[in-house]
UniProtKB/TrEMBL annotation:
Domain of life per record: Eukaryota
Domain Sdz-33 F-box: 167-224
Name under which the protein is recorded: Sdz-33 F-box domain-containing protein
Pfam family, one: FBA_2
InterPro entries hit by this protein: F-box_Sdz-33 (IPR012885)
Length: 303
């Protein structure tokens, strides 16, 4: 019977492929390895039926709960895919995220593409995360065009001129991320999230000016960790636009008027260096609210 509450699969391809059910409860990790390595594993051995196949498992348990288990196949990638298909076809659980931890060799490239092709048939919305190990340019571009959301921990430059089939981009190591990447990205994506960038106050003011001019109509959300001591410094020269949302906010926030009937709600929910901006639309005529929230002074924010 399919589960009554929503579940997903967090899958990873590496030296040992990995699957974990994600949901409201805790589920153990399932690793996939070659049958030739089974004798190197300690633990309890059992055979389980997966579809029409009898699959050997080794598992560990603590306090009566299974902590980790490993399934063994002649071909670990084919076994990995068969288990993913089993979850989809028999339990209606699809892959919701895929981690890639590999290299730029031809064998890993084929494995990655086979897995992504299978996942693309299983799930509508997917996330991919790449590790520090760089992939080849061909594989990197293949990933970008295959997923709606992409996370990167590398220092490689994402080429935004590519027509990436994505709604959002998240870059966890954005030391290379510059103003031109932000401006081009904001034209294409609804959400952009960047950590550890070198963006300055001047950069963020340029971005805000272009947003107010209506150059980023698709944009809904931006969060960027900047080099500013106080990310509100980028907003001080813009006319504030008090709204009910800012008046009721329990965290430091300000709003500025945008194009047409839009306004930007800017917060510091993740610290003073983090520039968080959510684009909203004002219904009807703009109203003035007596805000008890964050009021920007000439030099520093003040209550």
């Amino acid at each position: 019977m399919p589960p009554e509450f929503p579940l997903g699969l967090a899958a990873a391809i590496s030296d040992k492929h990995q699957i974990r059910i994600i949901g409201e409860c805790y589920y153990p990790y399932m690793h996939i390895d070659s049958i030739t390595k089974i004798d190197s594993y300690d633990g309890i051995r059992r055979n389980m039926k997966i579809g029409e196949d009898i699959v050997p498992f080794v598992f560990y348990h603590e306090d009566g709960y299974i902590d980790e288990l490993t399934a063994f196949f002649d071909d670990k990638t084919e076994g990995f895919l068969s288990i993913l298909e089993y979850f989809k076809n028999h339990l209606n659980i699809s892959v919701s995220s895929l981690d890639i931890h590999g290299d730029n060799g031809p064998e890993f490239s084929k494995t990655m593409r086979d897995v992504i092709h299978s996942c693309s048939q299983m799930a509508v919305s997917k996330t991919v995360e790449e590790s520090e190990q760089p992939l080849s340019e061909q594989d990197f571009n293949f990933i970008l065009k295959s997923f709606e959301t992409f996370y990167s921990e590398t220092e490689e430059k994402l080429e935004f001129h590519l027509e990436i089939d994505s709604d959002s981009i998240t870059v966890r190591n954005g030391s290379w991320f510059q103003l031109d990447h932000l401006l081009v990205g904001c034209q294409k994506y609804e959400e952009i999230h960047v950590t550890e960038s070198k963006l300055t106050e001047s950069d963020m003011k340029t971005f805000l000016t272009q947003w107010k001019d209506g150059k980023f109509p698709k944009l809904k959300n931006v969060s960027v960790k900047t080099v500013m001591t106080d990310s509100f410094d980028a907003v001080r020269d813009f006319e504030q636009y008090p709204t009910e949302s800012t008046a009721r906010s329990r965290i430091p926030c300000v709003s500025i008027k945008g194009y047409e009937n839009t306004y930007a709600m800017i917060t510091q929910r993740a610290g003073p260096k983090m520039f968080n901006m959510e684009v909203r639309r004002q219904n009807g005529r703009a109203r003035g609210f007596r805000t008890t929230g964050y009021r920007l002074g000439n030099n520093r924010g003040e209550l």
